[in-house]
Amino acid sequence: VLLGNQLARPLLLLAEGVRQVAAGDLSPKAVLQGKDELGGLTRSFAQMTQQLSDARSAVEHSMEQVDEARANLQTILDNLTAGVIVLDREGRIDTVNPGATRILRVPLSVYRGQRLDAVPELGEFAQRVWQRFELYATSPEDGERDHWQDAFELHPGERDTKMLLVRGATLPHDARLMVFDDITEVVSAQRSA
Questions:
Q1: What pLDDT shows up at residue 128?
Q2: Torsion of Cα atoms, 103 then 163 then 179 then 104, to 10°
């Protein structure tokens, strides 16, 4: 009976530890101090559980940092006066900021997930910007290492014309970033001068 208890106790301890780990409980596990193989096995299991717990804590900490960075970036985007639009590789709207809606006078967030050229007021503008992205990808001009910059004329109304200074860059996974400002008043002032 004594020998049976010496053999069964470590195995029962391991079985209980495996059940706890399977249920997501990575708290420190009991260790037998014996110098035999079963004692070594319980120590190895406890070490493995501790490593899993440490790895989980590191992942949770990293996720908290990512969430904080995302919140900070969103705050910055929301408070920029410039317009920001991120397009996926197919030209669908992924991210927009309030500045883009204000400058273009189009509720872009309604069109999230759709192609930019599907926005009725922006079809021609979207095609010209996409062509500029393609030109940048195939044959960038001198000085265009990490982004391109160009001015585009936009006709939101029959008599209304806007001049936009657009900067574009390629993001990971072939996404496209557009940052733009309304320079209509600047151009008008230059013409007047």
A1: 92
A2: 20
What confidence score (pLDDT) does residue 139 get? Answer: 78
**Up-side HSE of residue 25: CA atoms within 13 Å toward CB?**
9
- Can you tell me the distance from the alpha carbon of 160 to that of 158, in angstroms, rounded to the nearest whole number? 6
- For 105, the enclosing helix (H) or strand (E) is none
Q: Which positions ≥6 away from 65 have C-beta within 8 Å?
A: none
Average per-residue pLDDT in the chain? 85
- How many Å apart are CA 136 and CA 189, to the nearest integer? 30
**Using the 8-state DSSP alphabet, how is residue 139 labeled?**
S
Q: How confident is the model at residue 156 (pLDDT cuts 50, 70, 90)?
A: low
Q: How far is CA 144 from the centre of its chain?
A: 25
CA nearest neighbour of 180 among 73, 78, 34, 80: 80
Residue 33 three-state SS = coil
Closest CA relative to residue 187, chosen from 153, 144, 141: 153
**How confident is the model over 158-176, as pLDDT tens digits?**
667 889 999 999 999 889 9
**Angstrom distances, CA of residue 165 to CA of 58, 133, 151:** 43, 14, 4
Phi and psi at residue 90, to the nearest 5°? -95, 0
| Helix (H) / strand (E) containing 129 | helix 123-138
Q: Which residues pair with 170 in a beta bridge?
A: 176
- The stretch 107-135 carries a mean pLDDT of 90
